[in-house]
Design brief:
heterodimer, A: 299 residues, mainly alpha, ABC transporter involved in vitamin B12 uptake, BtuC, 13 helices, B: 259 residues, alpha/beta, six-stranded mixed sheet, four-stranded antiparallel sheet, 10 helices, 10 strands, 23% strand, globular, binds adenosine-5'-triphosphate, binds magnesium ion
Protein backbone atom coordinates (compact mmCIF):
# COMPACT_ATOMS: atom_id res chain seq x y z
CA UNK A 1 0.00 0.00 0.00
CA UNK A 2 2.62 2.53 1.10
CA UNK A 3 4.95 1.16 -1.56
CA UNK A 4 2.21 1.75 -4.12
CA UNK A 5 1.86 5.33 -3.06
CA UNK A 6 5.62 5.97 -3.00
CA UNK A 7 6.04 4.69 -6.54
CA UNK A 8 2.80 6.04 -7.96
CA UNK A 9 3.44 8.08 -11.09
CA UNK A 10 1.56 11.20 -9.99
CA UNK A 11 3.05 11.11 -6.51
CA UNK A 12 6.48 10.82 -8.12
CA UNK A 13 5.76 13.80 -10.30
CA UNK A 14 4.65 15.82 -7.32
CA UNK A 15 7.80 14.91 -5.41
CA UNK A 16 10.09 15.68 -8.34
CA UNK A 17 8.12 18.85 -9.13
CA UNK A 18 8.43 19.98 -5.53
CA UNK A 19 12.21 19.55 -5.69
CA UNK A 20 12.33 21.93 -8.65
CA UNK A 21 9.54 24.08 -7.22
CA UNK A 22 11.35 24.98 -4.01
CA UNK A 23 14.28 26.16 -6.11
CA UNK A 24 11.94 28.32 -8.14
CA UNK A 25 10.61 29.57 -4.82
CA UNK A 26 14.16 30.38 -3.75
CA UNK A 27 14.76 32.44 -6.88
CA UNK A 28 11.41 34.15 -6.29
CA UNK A 29 12.43 34.86 -2.70
CA UNK A 30 15.53 36.75 -3.92
CA UNK A 31 13.35 38.90 -6.12
CA UNK A 32 10.91 39.54 -3.29
CA UNK A 33 13.68 40.47 -0.83
CA UNK A 34 15.16 43.02 -3.20
CA UNK A 35 11.74 44.30 -4.17
CA UNK A 36 10.64 44.74 -0.58
CA UNK A 37 13.85 46.52 0.37
CA UNK A 38 14.29 48.90 -2.53
CA UNK A 39 11.34 48.57 -4.90
CA UNK A 40 13.69 47.43 -7.65
CA UNK A 41 12.92 44.39 -9.81
CA UNK A 42 16.36 42.87 -10.09
CA UNK A 43 16.45 41.42 -13.59
CA UNK A 44 20.12 40.53 -13.08
CA UNK A 45 19.31 38.27 -10.12
CA UNK A 46 19.80 35.10 -12.18
CA UNK A 47 23.17 36.01 -13.73
CA UNK A 48 24.39 37.42 -10.41
CA UNK A 49 23.65 34.08 -8.75
CA UNK A 50 25.18 32.20 -11.69
CA UNK A 51 28.35 34.29 -11.51
CA UNK A 52 28.99 33.76 -7.81
CA UNK A 53 28.12 30.08 -8.14
CA UNK A 54 30.92 29.79 -10.71
CA UNK A 55 33.33 31.62 -8.42
CA UNK A 56 32.64 29.18 -5.60
CA UNK A 57 32.09 25.90 -7.43
CA UNK A 58 35.16 26.24 -9.69
CA UNK A 59 37.19 26.07 -6.46
CA UNK A 60 36.37 22.36 -6.58
CA UNK A 61 38.80 22.23 -9.53
CA UNK A 62 41.42 23.29 -7.01
CA UNK A 63 40.50 20.47 -4.62
CA UNK A 64 38.11 22.43 -2.41
CA UNK A 65 35.34 20.14 -1.22
CA UNK A 66 31.73 20.78 -2.12
CA UNK A 67 30.75 22.44 1.16
CA UNK A 68 33.69 24.84 1.11
CA UNK A 69 32.93 25.72 -2.50
CA UNK A 70 29.27 26.29 -1.66
CA UNK A 71 30.18 28.47 1.33
CA UNK A 72 32.45 30.57 -0.90
CA UNK A 73 29.60 31.02 -3.38
CA UNK A 74 27.23 32.19 -0.65
CA UNK A 75 29.74 34.59 0.92
CA UNK A 76 30.70 36.06 -2.45
CA UNK A 77 27.01 36.21 -3.33
CA UNK A 78 26.34 38.33 -0.26
CA UNK A 79 29.25 40.69 -0.90
CA UNK A 80 28.67 40.99 -4.64
CA UNK A 81 24.99 41.83 -4.21
CA UNK A 82 25.63 44.32 -1.40
CA UNK A 83 28.31 46.02 -3.50
CA UNK A 84 25.94 46.14 -6.47
CA UNK A 85 23.45 48.01 -4.32
CA UNK A 86 26.06 50.46 -3.06
CA UNK A 87 27.81 51.12 -6.37
CA UNK A 88 25.09 50.78 -8.99
CA UNK A 89 21.65 50.97 -7.42
CA UNK A 90 22.00 53.49 -4.57
CA UNK A 91 23.12 56.34 -6.83
CA UNK A 92 19.96 55.82 -8.91
CA UNK A 93 17.42 56.16 -6.08
CA UNK A 94 17.21 59.89 -6.53
CA UNK A 95 17.42 59.91 -10.31
CA UNK A 96 13.95 59.43 -11.71
CA UNK A 97 15.23 59.55 -15.29
CA UNK A 98 17.36 56.39 -15.08
CA UNK A 99 15.40 53.29 -14.26
CA UNK A 100 17.37 50.77 -12.19
CA UNK A 101 15.59 48.00 -14.12
CA UNK A 102 17.30 49.07 -17.33
CA UNK A 103 20.64 49.10 -15.57
CA UNK A 104 20.02 45.63 -14.15
CA UNK A 105 19.16 44.30 -17.61
CA UNK A 106 22.50 45.67 -18.77
CA UNK A 107 24.17 43.89 -15.89
CA UNK A 108 22.41 40.66 -16.95
CA UNK A 109 24.03 40.81 -20.39
CA UNK A 110 27.41 41.81 -19.06
CA UNK A 111 27.65 39.05 -16.46
CA UNK A 112 26.64 36.31 -18.90
CA UNK A 113 29.18 37.57 -21.43
CA UNK A 114 31.96 37.68 -18.86
CA UNK A 115 31.06 34.22 -17.57
CA UNK A 116 31.15 32.78 -21.11
CA UNK A 117 34.53 34.39 -21.69
CA UNK A 118 36.07 33.19 -18.44
CA UNK A 119 34.48 29.78 -17.98
CA UNK A 120 33.24 29.02 -21.55
CA UNK A 121 29.71 27.94 -22.45
CA UNK A 122 30.46 24.26 -21.93
CA UNK A 123 28.58 23.15 -18.82
CA UNK A 124 30.48 21.91 -15.80
CA UNK A 125 29.18 19.26 -13.48
CA UNK A 126 30.19 19.85 -9.86
CA UNK A 127 30.35 16.56 -7.99
CA UNK A 128 27.47 16.51 -5.57
CA UNK A 129 27.95 14.89 -2.17
CA UNK A 130 24.65 13.09 -2.73
CA UNK A 131 23.52 10.43 -5.20
CA UNK A 132 20.99 11.40 -7.80
CA UNK A 133 19.67 7.83 -8.08
CA UNK A 134 16.13 7.74 -6.77
CA UNK A 135 15.26 5.94 -3.58
CA UNK A 136 13.71 2.54 -4.24
CA UNK A 137 10.62 1.09 -2.68
CA UNK A 138 10.22 -2.67 -3.14
CA UNK A 139 12.28 -2.55 -6.28
CA UNK A 140 10.51 0.43 -7.88
CA UNK A 141 11.90 3.98 -7.99
CA UNK A 142 10.24 6.68 -5.91
CA UNK A 143 10.11 10.34 -6.93
CA UNK A 144 12.98 11.45 -4.72
CA UNK A 145 16.71 10.88 -4.65
CA UNK A 146 19.18 11.74 -1.89
CA UNK A 147 20.19 14.70 -4.04
CA UNK A 148 16.68 16.04 -4.56
CA UNK A 149 15.94 15.55 -0.87
CA UNK A 150 19.01 17.64 -0.12
CA UNK A 151 17.86 20.29 -2.60
CA UNK A 152 14.42 20.51 -0.99
CA UNK A 153 15.93 20.55 2.49
CA UNK A 154 18.45 23.26 1.64
CA UNK A 155 15.81 25.47 0.05
CA UNK A 156 13.37 25.06 2.93
CA UNK A 157 16.11 25.65 5.50
CA UNK A 158 17.13 28.91 3.82
CA UNK A 159 13.53 30.09 3.65
CA UNK A 160 12.99 29.27 7.30
CA UNK A 161 16.14 31.16 8.25
CA UNK A 162 15.04 34.19 6.27
CA UNK A 163 11.58 34.04 7.84
CA UNK A 164 13.06 33.90 11.35
CA UNK A 165 15.46 36.72 10.58
CA UNK A 166 12.70 38.97 9.31
CA UNK A 167 10.01 38.15 11.85
CA UNK A 168 11.78 37.46 15.12
CA UNK A 169 14.94 39.55 15.31
CA UNK A 170 15.44 43.25 15.92
CA UNK A 171 17.44 43.39 12.72
CA UNK A 172 14.48 41.93 10.86
CA UNK A 173 12.19 44.51 12.41
CA UNK A 174 14.44 47.28 11.13
CA UNK A 175 14.70 45.66 7.71
CA UNK A 176 10.91 45.52 7.45
CA UNK A 177 10.51 49.08 8.69
CA UNK A 178 13.13 50.52 6.32
CA UNK A 179 11.66 48.69 3.37
CA UNK A 180 8.09 49.78 4.06
CA UNK A 181 8.62 53.40 5.07
CA UNK A 182 12.19 54.62 4.65
CA UNK A 183 11.41 58.23 5.56
CA UNK A 184 9.63 57.36 8.78
CA UNK A 185 12.39 54.89 9.63
CA UNK A 186 15.02 57.58 9.20
CA UNK A 187 13.09 59.80 11.61
CA UNK A 188 13.29 57.03 14.20
CA UNK A 189 17.06 56.92 13.79
CA UNK A 190 17.12 53.67 11.82
CA UNK A 191 20.12 53.54 9.46
CA UNK A 192 18.01 52.91 6.40
CA UNK A 193 20.82 53.08 3.84
CA UNK A 194 22.83 50.32 5.48
CA UNK A 195 19.80 48.15 5.97
CA UNK A 196 18.83 48.36 2.32
CA UNK A 197 22.38 47.30 1.42
CA UNK A 198 22.04 44.43 3.85
CA UNK A 199 18.71 43.46 2.25
CA UNK A 200 20.46 43.18 -1.11
CA UNK A 201 23.28 41.22 0.49
CA UNK A 202 20.87 38.71 1.99
CA UNK A 203 19.10 38.34 -1.37
CA UNK A 204 22.48 37.74 -3.01
CA UNK A 205 23.35 35.02 -0.49
CA UNK A 206 19.97 33.33 -1.00
CA UNK A 207 20.52 33.57 -4.77
CA UNK A 208 23.89 31.85 -4.39
CA UNK A 209 22.25 28.97 -2.52
CA UNK A 210 19.78 28.66 -5.41
CA UNK A 211 22.68 28.72 -7.88
CA UNK A 212 24.63 26.01 -6.05
CA UNK A 213 21.56 23.80 -5.74
CA UNK A 214 20.68 24.23 -9.42
CA UNK A 215 24.24 23.52 -10.54
CA UNK A 216 23.71 19.98 -9.22
CA UNK A 217 20.83 19.44 -11.66
CA UNK A 218 21.46 17.42 -14.87
CA UNK A 219 21.98 20.72 -16.77
CA UNK A 220 25.01 21.48 -14.64
CA UNK A 221 26.74 24.82 -14.26
CA UNK A 222 26.53 27.02 -17.35
CA UNK A 223 26.41 30.79 -17.99
CA UNK A 224 22.72 30.68 -18.90
CA UNK A 225 21.76 28.04 -16.34
CA UNK A 226 19.51 30.35 -14.35
CA UNK A 227 17.70 32.07 -17.22
CA UNK A 228 14.76 29.68 -17.31
CA UNK A 229 14.66 29.45 -13.52
CA UNK A 230 14.64 33.21 -13.30
CA UNK A 231 11.60 33.49 -15.56
CA UNK A 232 9.82 30.86 -13.48
CA UNK A 233 10.94 32.61 -10.29
CA UNK A 234 9.64 35.88 -11.64
CA UNK A 235 6.29 34.26 -12.43
CA UNK A 236 6.20 32.75 -8.94
CA UNK A 237 6.97 36.10 -7.35
CA UNK A 238 4.33 37.83 -9.48
CA UNK A 239 1.69 35.22 -8.71
CA UNK A 240 2.57 35.02 -5.03
CA UNK A 241 2.63 38.77 -4.68
CA UNK A 242 5.91 40.60 -4.82
CA UNK A 243 5.65 41.50 -1.17
CA UNK A 244 5.08 38.00 0.14
CA UNK A 245 7.97 35.58 0.77
CA UNK A 246 5.54 32.79 1.67
CA UNK A 247 3.53 33.46 -1.48
CA UNK A 248 6.76 33.16 -3.47
CA UNK A 249 7.49 29.75 -1.97
CA UNK A 250 3.99 28.36 -2.43
CA UNK A 251 3.60 29.51 -6.00
CA UNK A 252 7.13 28.30 -6.76
CA UNK A 253 6.16 24.80 -5.66
CA UNK A 254 2.90 24.93 -7.60
CA UNK A 255 4.74 25.95 -10.77
CA UNK A 256 7.36 23.23 -10.26
CA UNK A 257 4.70 20.55 -9.91
CA UNK A 258 2.65 21.79 -12.88
CA UNK A 259 5.76 21.79 -15.08
CA UNK A 260 6.64 18.28 -13.97
CA UNK A 261 3.14 17.00 -14.73
CA UNK A 262 3.22 18.59 -18.19
CA UNK A 263 6.63 17.06 -18.81
CA UNK A 264 5.45 13.64 -17.81
CA UNK A 265 1.93 13.44 -19.18
CA UNK A 266 2.11 15.73 -22.18
CA UNK A 267 5.22 16.92 -23.90
CA UNK A 268 8.33 18.38 -22.34
CA UNK A 269 8.49 20.95 -25.13
CA UNK A 270 5.24 22.39 -23.88
CA UNK A 271 6.47 23.00 -20.35
CA UNK A 272 8.46 26.11 -21.25
CA UNK A 273 5.66 27.30 -23.48
CA UNK A 274 3.19 26.92 -20.64
CA UNK A 275 5.55 28.96 -18.48
CA UNK A 276 5.54 31.77 -21.01
CA UNK A 277 1.75 31.56 -21.30
CA UNK A 278 1.55 31.71 -17.52
CA UNK A 279 3.74 34.80 -17.56
CA UNK A 280 1.54 36.50 -20.13
CA UNK A 281 -1.61 35.60 -18.23
CA UNK A 282 -0.11 36.92 -15.01
CA UNK A 283 0.92 40.16 -16.64
CA UNK A 284 -2.56 40.53 -18.06
CA UNK A 285 -4.37 39.70 -14.84
CA UNK A 286 -2.06 41.59 -12.53
CA UNK A 287 -0.46 44.36 -14.53
CA UNK A 288 -1.11 46.70 -11.63
CA UNK A 289 0.50 44.21 -9.28
CA UNK A 290 3.71 44.52 -11.18
CA UNK A 291 3.81 47.84 -12.90
CA UNK A 292 2.06 50.33 -10.65
CA UNK A 293 4.25 49.19 -7.82
CA UNK A 294 7.11 50.06 -10.15
CA UNK A 295 6.00 53.63 -10.25
CA UNK A 296 6.08 53.86 -6.47
CA UNK A 297 9.66 52.66 -6.51
CA UNK A 298 11.80 54.60 -4.08
CA UNK A 299 12.73 57.98 -5.49
CA UNK B 1 4.56 84.68 29.57
CA UNK B 2 5.42 87.30 26.97
CA UNK B 3 3.86 87.64 23.56
CA UNK B 4 7.10 88.61 21.85
CA UNK B 5 9.19 85.81 20.36
CA UNK B 6 11.22 84.16 23.06
CA UNK B 7 14.92 85.07 23.04
CA UNK B 8 17.04 82.13 21.97
CA UNK B 9 19.31 80.65 24.58
CA UNK B 10 21.67 77.75 24.17
CA UNK B 11 19.10 75.55 25.85
CA UNK B 12 16.50 76.31 23.16
CA UNK B 13 15.36 73.03 21.60
CA UNK B 14 14.16 74.19 18.20
CA UNK B 15 14.40 77.47 16.40
CA UNK B 16 12.84 78.32 13.05
CA UNK B 17 14.51 81.48 11.79
CA UNK B 18 12.79 83.47 9.03
CA UNK B 19 11.67 80.36 7.18
CA UNK B 20 10.04 80.69 3.77
CA UNK B 21 8.91 77.71 1.73
CA UNK B 22 7.56 77.92 -1.80
CA UNK B 23 6.09 74.99 -3.69
CA UNK B 24 6.19 76.31 -7.24
CA UNK B 25 4.04 79.42 -7.12
CA UNK B 26 2.49 78.59 -3.74
CA UNK B 27 3.97 80.34 -0.71
CA UNK B 28 3.39 77.64 1.92
CA UNK B 29 5.40 79.54 4.55
CA UNK B 30 6.54 83.15 4.54
CA UNK B 31 9.10 84.50 7.01
CA UNK B 32 8.08 82.19 9.83
CA UNK B 33 10.07 82.37 13.07
CA UNK B 34 9.40 80.72 16.40
CA UNK B 35 11.18 78.58 18.95
CA UNK B 36 10.49 75.92 21.53
CA UNK B 37 12.23 75.75 24.90
CA UNK B 38 12.60 72.89 27.36
CA UNK B 39 9.58 72.34 29.57
CA UNK B 40 7.36 74.30 27.22
CA UNK B 41 4.23 73.17 25.43
CA UNK B 42 3.77 75.23 22.28
CA UNK B 43 0.68 75.00 20.12
CA UNK B 44 0.95 75.59 16.38
CA UNK B 45 -2.53 76.37 15.10
CA UNK B 46 -4.15 77.71 11.99
CA UNK B 47 -6.82 76.88 9.42
CA UNK B 48 -6.46 73.99 6.98
CA UNK B 49 -3.62 74.55 4.59
CA UNK B 50 -2.05 77.27 6.75
CA UNK B 51 1.33 75.56 6.62
CA UNK B 52 1.50 73.75 9.98
CA UNK B 53 2.60 70.39 8.61
CA UNK B 54 5.01 72.14 6.26
CA UNK B 55 6.58 73.85 9.28
CA UNK B 56 7.07 70.39 10.82
CA UNK B 57 8.51 69.06 7.57
CA UNK B 58 11.00 71.91 7.44
CA UNK B 59 11.96 71.33 11.07
CA UNK B 60 12.60 67.65 10.25
CA UNK B 61 14.52 68.20 7.04
CA UNK B 62 11.85 66.59 4.83
CA UNK B 63 11.33 69.93 3.11
CA UNK B 64 14.20 72.27 2.40
CA UNK B 65 13.36 75.90 3.19
CA UNK B 66 13.55 78.29 0.27
CA UNK B 67 14.87 80.87 2.73
CA UNK B 68 15.80 80.90 6.38
CA UNK B 69 17.22 78.21 8.61
CA UNK B 70 16.26 75.62 11.19
CA UNK B 71 18.45 75.27 14.25
CA UNK B 72 18.63 72.73 17.02
CA UNK B 73 20.83 74.78 19.35
CA UNK B 74 21.13 72.10 21.99
CA UNK B 75 22.80 69.69 19.58
CA UNK B 76 24.43 72.39 17.48
CA UNK B 77 22.72 71.35 14.23
CA UNK B 78 21.58 73.72 11.51
CA UNK B 79 19.13 72.50 8.85
CA UNK B 80 19.26 68.92 10.13
CA UNK B 81 18.66 65.89 7.92
CA UNK B 82 15.82 63.53 8.92
CA UNK B 83 18.37 60.87 9.82
CA UNK B 84 20.10 63.20 12.32
CA UNK B 85 16.99 64.07 14.29
CA UNK B 86 16.55 61.01 16.46
CA UNK B 87 20.12 61.22 17.72
CA UNK B 88 19.62 64.92 18.36
CA UNK B 89 16.72 64.03 20.66
CA UNK B 90 13.87 65.04 18.39
CA UNK B 91 10.87 62.75 17.89
CA UNK B 92 7.88 63.41 15.67
CA UNK B 93 4.51 61.91 14.92
CA UNK B 94 2.96 62.35 11.51
CA UNK B 95 -0.37 63.76 10.52
CA UNK B 96 -2.38 60.62 9.81
CA UNK B 97 -1.09 57.42 11.33
CA UNK B 98 2.38 56.74 9.90
CA UNK B 99 2.83 53.36 11.59
CA UNK B 100 4.63 50.46 9.90
CA UNK B 101 1.73 48.41 8.58
CA UNK B 102 3.76 45.21 8.33
CA UNK B 103 4.81 45.30 11.99
CA UNK B 104 2.67 44.75 15.09
CA UNK B 105 1.81 47.63 17.42
CA UNK B 106 4.46 46.40 19.86
CA UNK B 107 7.09 46.11 17.12
CA UNK B 108 6.24 49.62 15.96
CA UNK B 109 6.99 50.98 19.40
CA UNK B 110 10.18 48.91 19.67
CA UNK B 111 11.32 50.35 16.34
CA UNK B 112 11.14 53.79 17.96
CA UNK B 113 14.00 53.00 20.33
CA UNK B 114 16.65 52.58 17.64
CA UNK B 115 18.43 55.86 18.17
CA UNK B 116 19.13 55.44 21.85
CA UNK B 117 22.69 55.03 23.07
CA UNK B 118 23.67 51.40 23.05
CA UNK B 119 21.45 50.69 20.05
CA UNK B 120 24.46 50.23 17.81
CA UNK B 121 24.01 48.85 14.34
CA UNK B 122 26.41 45.93 14.43
CA UNK B 123 25.53 44.74 17.91
CA UNK B 124 21.89 44.83 16.91
CA UNK B 125 22.72 42.15 14.35
CA UNK B 126 22.89 39.80 17.30
CA UNK B 127 19.60 41.05 18.68
CA UNK B 128 17.88 37.73 19.00
CA UNK B 129 14.49 37.43 20.67
CA UNK B 130 15.66 36.97 24.27
CA UNK B 131 17.93 40.01 24.02
CA UNK B 132 14.82 41.98 23.13
CA UNK B 133 13.02 41.20 26.38
CA UNK B 134 13.91 44.41 28.14
CA UNK B 135 12.98 46.54 25.18
CA UNK B 136 9.73 44.65 24.81
CA UNK B 137 8.83 45.27 28.45
CA UNK B 138 9.64 48.94 28.08
CA UNK B 139 7.57 49.22 24.90
CA UNK B 140 4.66 47.63 26.71
CA UNK B 141 4.95 50.06 29.60
CA UNK B 142 4.96 53.04 27.23
CA UNK B 143 1.87 51.63 25.50
CA UNK B 144 0.33 51.22 28.91
CA UNK B 145 1.13 54.83 29.78
CA UNK B 146 -0.95 55.80 26.75
CA UNK B 147 -3.70 53.37 27.67
CA UNK B 148 -3.33 51.18 24.59
CA UNK B 149 -1.31 48.20 25.86
CA UNK B 150 -4.21 45.88 25.05
CA UNK B 151 -3.51 46.34 21.37
CA UNK B 152 0.17 45.37 21.52
CA UNK B 153 -0.18 42.22 19.42
CA UNK B 154 -2.46 43.72 16.76
CA UNK B 155 -1.52 45.01 13.34
CA UNK B 156 -1.91 48.79 12.85
CA UNK B 157 -4.46 48.29 10.09
CA UNK B 158 -6.76 46.42 12.47
CA UNK B 159 -7.07 49.08 15.19
CA UNK B 160 -9.21 52.23 15.46
CA UNK B 161 -7.71 55.54 14.33
CA UNK B 162 -7.60 57.08 17.81
CA UNK B 163 -5.69 54.07 19.12
CA UNK B 164 -3.23 54.17 16.24
CA UNK B 165 -2.55 57.86 16.89
CA UNK B 166 -1.63 57.05 20.46
CA UNK B 167 0.58 54.15 19.36
CA UNK B 168 2.43 56.65 17.19
CA UNK B 169 2.93 58.86 20.24
CA UNK B 170 4.22 55.85 22.17
CA UNK B 171 6.70 55.14 19.37
CA UNK B 172 7.94 58.73 19.64
CA UNK B 173 8.14 58.66 23.46
CA UNK B 174 10.17 55.46 23.73
CA UNK B 175 13.07 57.31 22.10
CA UNK B 176 13.12 59.57 25.22
CA UNK B 177 13.28 62.75 23.13
CA UNK B 178 14.00 66.21 24.49
CA UNK B 179 11.73 67.70 21.84
CA UNK B 180 8.47 66.11 20.75
CA UNK B 181 6.63 67.25 17.62
CA UNK B 182 3.02 66.09 17.48
CA UNK B 183 0.95 66.61 14.32
CA UNK B 184 -2.74 66.38 15.24
CA UNK B 185 -2.24 63.67 17.87
CA UNK B 186 -5.71 64.04 19.36
CA UNK B 187 -7.84 63.39 16.30
CA UNK B 188 -10.05 60.37 16.74
CA UNK B 189 -10.12 60.59 20.54
CA UNK B 190 -13.35 60.92 22.52
CA UNK B 191 -13.91 63.38 25.40
CA UNK B 192 -12.60 61.15 28.17
CA UNK B 193 -9.60 60.08 26.10
CA UNK B 194 -8.84 63.72 25.32
CA UNK B 195 -8.66 64.58 29.01
CA UNK B 196 -6.34 61.69 29.73
CA UNK B 197 -4.19 62.56 26.75
CA UNK B 198 -3.92 66.22 27.80
CA UNK B 199 -2.86 65.05 31.24
CA UNK B 200 -0.20 62.83 29.70
CA UNK B 201 1.26 65.68 27.65
CA UNK B 202 1.32 67.96 30.69
CA UNK B 203 3.27 65.24 32.45
CA UNK B 204 5.90 65.28 29.72
CA UNK B 205 6.84 68.86 30.52
CA UNK B 206 9.47 67.89 33.05
CA UNK B 207 11.26 65.76 30.45
CA UNK B 208 10.92 67.64 27.18
CA UNK B 209 9.54 70.49 25.12
CA UNK B 210 6.45 69.80 23.05
CA UNK B 211 5.33 71.39 19.80
CA UNK B 212 1.78 70.48 18.98
CA UNK B 213 -0.40 70.95 15.90
CA UNK B 214 -4.07 70.58 16.72
CA UNK B 215 -7.44 71.68 15.41
CA UNK B 216 -9.45 70.94 18.53
CA UNK B 217 -9.40 74.30 20.38
CA UNK B 218 -11.07 72.93 23.51
CA UNK B 219 -8.12 70.58 23.76
CA UNK B 220 -5.33 73.01 22.86
CA UNK B 221 -6.31 76.15 24.74
CA UNK B 222 -6.09 74.83 28.31
CA UNK B 223 -3.03 72.70 27.49
CA UNK B 224 -0.43 74.95 25.92
CA UNK B 225 1.83 77.62 27.40
CA UNK B 226 2.15 79.51 24.16
CA UNK B 227 0.50 79.58 20.76
CA UNK B 228 1.85 80.34 17.31
CA UNK B 229 -0.96 81.10 14.87
CA UNK B 230 -0.40 80.57 11.16
CA UNK B 231 -2.64 81.78 8.38
CA UNK B 232 -1.77 81.42 4.70
CA UNK B 233 1.80 80.61 5.69
CA UNK B 234 2.35 83.67 7.86
CA UNK B 235 2.58 84.00 11.62
CA UNK B 236 -0.35 86.27 12.47
CA UNK B 237 -0.08 86.01 16.24
CA UNK B 238 1.92 84.52 19.08
CA UNK B 239 1.30 84.56 22.79
CA UNK B 240 -0.55 82.87 25.60
CA UNK B 241 -3.92 81.32 24.81
CA UNK B 242 -5.79 84.21 26.41
CA UNK B 243 -3.75 86.79 24.52
CA UNK B 244 -4.29 84.98 21.25
CA UNK B 245 -7.97 84.55 21.89
CA UNK B 246 -8.40 88.33 22.08
CA UNK B 247 -6.23 89.07 19.06
CA UNK B 248 -8.51 90.59 16.38
CA UNK B 249 -6.44 89.20 13.52
CA UNK B 250 -6.81 85.71 14.92
CA UNK B 251 -10.51 86.05 15.50
CA UNK B 252 -10.97 87.17 11.94
CA UNK B 253 -8.67 84.68 10.29
CA UNK B 254 -9.29 81.65 12.37
CA UNK B 255 -11.37 81.49 15.50
CA UNK B 256 -14.17 83.52 14.03
CA UNK B 257 -14.52 81.05 11.21
CA UNK B 258 -14.11 77.97 13.34
CA UNK B 259 -16.32 78.69 16.30
N1 LIG C 1 4.97 68.73 -0.97
C1 LIG C 1 4.13 69.70 -1.33
N2 LIG C 1 4.07 70.12 -2.63
C2 LIG C 1 3.23 71.11 -2.99
N3 LIG C 1 2.40 71.75 -2.16
C3 LIG C 1 2.40 71.38 -0.86
C4 LIG C 1 3.25 70.32 -0.39
N4 LIG C 1 3.03 70.17 0.95
C5 LIG C 1 2.08 71.07 1.27
N5 LIG C 1 1.71 71.79 0.20
C6 LIG C 1 0.73 72.90 0.21
O1 LIG C 1 1.17 73.84 1.16
C7 LIG C 1 0.08 74.37 1.87
C8 LIG C 1 0.25 74.12 3.36
O2 LIG C 1 0.06 72.73 3.60
P1 LIG C 1 0.23 72.09 5.03
O3 LIG C 1 0.04 70.63 4.87
O4 LIG C 1 1.47 72.55 5.65
O5 LIG C 1 -1.03 72.70 5.80
P2 LIG C 1 -1.57 72.37 7.25
O6 LIG C 1 -1.61 73.66 7.98
O7 LIG C 1 -0.82 71.26 7.86
O8 LIG C 1 -3.06 71.93 6.90
P3 LIG C 1 -3.99 70.83 7.59
O9 LIG C 1 -4.61 71.49 8.77
O10 LIG C 1 -5.00 70.54 6.53
O11 LIG C 1 -3.15 69.66 7.94
C9 LIG C 1 -1.17 73.72 1.30
O12 LIG C 1 -1.70 74.58 0.34
C10 LIG C 1 -0.64 72.48 0.67
O13 LIG C 1 -1.45 72.09 -0.42
MG1 LIG D 1 -1.28 69.38 8.45
Amino acid sequence: MIANILTNRIVNDIAGGTAQGVIIGLVALCLVLVWRATRVLNFAQGPMAMFVTYIGMTQMDHHANFWVAAAISVAVGFIFSALTEIVIVKPLYHKAEINPIVVMVGMFTLLEAVASAVWTNIPRYPTAPFSSINFQSEGNPTGLSPLSTFQIGAALAIMTLVAILFNYTSLGLKLRASALAPEVSKLLGIRVGRLLTLGWGIAGAVGAVAGVVISLNPGGLAPNMLDAMFILGFIAAAIGGLDSPLGALVSGIVIGVVMQLINDYWNSNYADMVAVVLLVVVLMLRPQGIFTKNSTRRV
Amino acid sequence: MSSTPVATTSSTLLELDAISVRFGGLAALTDVSFSVNPGEIVGLIGPNGAGKTTAFNVACGFVEPTEGSVRLPKSGLTNPQPSQLARAGVARTLQGVGLFENCTVLENVMAGAQSRPGGRFWTSLLGLPHGQKELKAEALSVLDRLGVADYAAQMPTAIPYGIAKRVAVARALIARPSLLLLDEPASGLDEAELDAFAELIRGLRSEMGVLLVEHNMDFVMPLVDRLVVLSFGKVIATGTPSEVRQNPAVIEAYLGVDE
